[in-house]
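hey so u asked for the seq, here:
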Amino acid sequence: MAPDSNRTQALFDRLLRITRRASGATPEAVHQLRTTIRRIETLVAGTLPAPGRKEEKTLKQFDRLRRRAGKVRDLDAQIQALDSVRLESVTRDRARVMAFLEKARVKREGRLMRAFEREMDRGLEKRAKRTAALLQQAARAAGADEQRFLAHALNEFASAVKQHPALNEGNLHAFRMACKRVRYLAEMAGEGPRVATVIEPLKQIQDAIGSWHDWVTLIATAESVLKPTGQVPLLSALRASARSRYLEAIRIAADAKRALLELREQKREPGKQVTRSEPVATRVATAATA
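ran it, structure tokens below
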């Protein structure tokens, strides 16, 4: 399979723009860096099943940057979540945890920016352009094939569901990561209503579970900073928020899972009519305003 060459070039252009920025690792830039590298990794895996030595080296450079960016992004998500807690009874503890997060972010941002410089000095830009050219060549040779990409994405989703048949706190994050890879694969099919029908439920799963995981991570951070010996109002508030997001994530994942599996069956049986469940859109709208 090979994606549209214009989308391939746009993906690499976006990465190069991010790496050339001199404004520092802003939360938005860090998020874009991570997601762009994830998309490129998915693209390479789907287009070059046996990448050469140079492509392998490029992927290792991307992986190092993505991991550094991930550590900064985790802190950004925790800061955003903690900032939404406005109870008067938690003011002092909230300030302590926030100070810890902000200090840690400064350190991790510095490490990320230094990693940027190292990888660029090691020829990342040149290698990225070379890899982009290879992928575009493969795209022109094979042609864009929306149907095959979507079918492959839906099959990968079915495999993820089979690996995680009953979602719980122990496997929810792993399921999200699998869905994220499926989403990036589906995006390579291009744009249009059929592609959006696959991507939308995957994004719903990703956002809902991601929100829950951010709060779980924040709880762990707050516990390490506060070292509680008894009841702590801030921790109680964080746990309550995490619980509500967990239940919401389970509901959204169940609805989105049903919609995507039905869509997969529909594509395997063209004559079958499938109507997507109404709760998916309804609950996502609710989650977006939470």
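The chain has a mean pLDDT of 85. The chain has two domains: 1-144, 145-290.
lmk if thats what u needed
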